[in-house]
Design a protein that fits this description.
The chain is α+β, with helices and mostly antiparallel strands. It has 2 domains: about 55-190, no CATH class; about 200-360, Rieske Iron-sulfur Protein (3-layer Sandwich). About 35% of the residues lie in helices and about 15% in strands. The protein contains 8 helices and 15 strands. The strands form 5 sheets. Strands 5-6-7-8-13 form a 5-stranded antiparallel sheet. Helix 2 runs antiparallel to helix 3 (about 100-130). The protein starts with a strand and ends in a 16-residue tail after the last strand. It binds FE2/S2 (inorganic) cluster. FE2/S2 (inorganic) cluster binds near residues 286, 288, 323, 324 and 325.
Amino acid sequence: MSKTKFDPYGEDNPANPKKPASSSGSTSSGAAQTHGGSYEEEIIAVEAPQEIDAKAAKRAERQVATMFMVSVVCTLGFVVAYFALPATATIELPLIGITNASNLSLGLALGLSTLLIGLGAIQWARKLMPHVEVIQQRHLLKPPDSLRKAALAQFSQGAADSGLGQRRLLRRTLLASLLVFPLPLIVLARGCGPAPKGELNETMWTGGLRFLADITYQPLKPSDVPIGGVVSAVPEGLLEVQKAQHNLNERAKSAVILIRMRPDQIRSQQGEGWDYQGILAFSKICTHVGCPIALYEQRTHHLLCPCHQSTFDLADDGKVIYGPAARRLPQLPITVDAEGYLVAREGFQEPVGPSFWERS
Ligand code: FES
């Protein structure tokens, strides 16, 4: 194996802007021309590019094409196994014992298909491309123009060396294997369960439901929300709904915050008279990607989401004044019931939570 060292500071490096005093001067002009060496760069040709034997190349090409095609078969096998094997089917294997047949075949098929694409690419590089080892030292982030030109030349050389243009069989089989490769992802999307219907657009809030303090679940009166204060609340009956549904989905949608300001500080609301003596109720779920929000600055009436800093102006109908949220914070109209507890006048008039919900 021949080893040629290229000195980037050598005088025969056309891209070298300056030759330092310590430079040894031993160079390989061949390497310089082949790889476009340049400023503070060392390139070592471990093995000079060789002519590839045509017969061996043909054999290697067939091997690589076979791997790509077997990869296609494995990917299609994944799809077939997904539909053909019941999720509960089992199989007994030596050493492993009883295992789920569907999981095993899906894993094997996808693993093999990935592996074969990788092995095919490696084999292609090993057998059909010239063997050249290139080491480039780190240097200033902005390279000189000469180095950029050299990099472009190397890239073009690499593209030419790969034979992508001439080896139609390899190109097509590689394309085929990569094209069918995403199929399992599409098939697996079926396993995400039924698509949500209207439940993402609605919460359990409805007219007459009381506001309960979060955690203590005690009903709230206007006196529990001082001016400048912020109180997290949930709808009355939430615990029963959670128990019946065996999940926290309703809590994730229905959480609200109550804040209070002087009525003359409210510049606009989402509906006429939706406050109660300066108390406003807003969804607590950020309209960006759904973080719960409670960072309230009483002086400006801004509510800040801790996740990505979306900021909502609660004195101005909850509109977004900063950050990635695309939609205002939905407001809940409120009043008090006969016993003086805060209640909703009706449900939310627009979907709460991340913006994609309103498009569902
Ligand atoms: S979730 Fe609130 S800003 Fe991203």
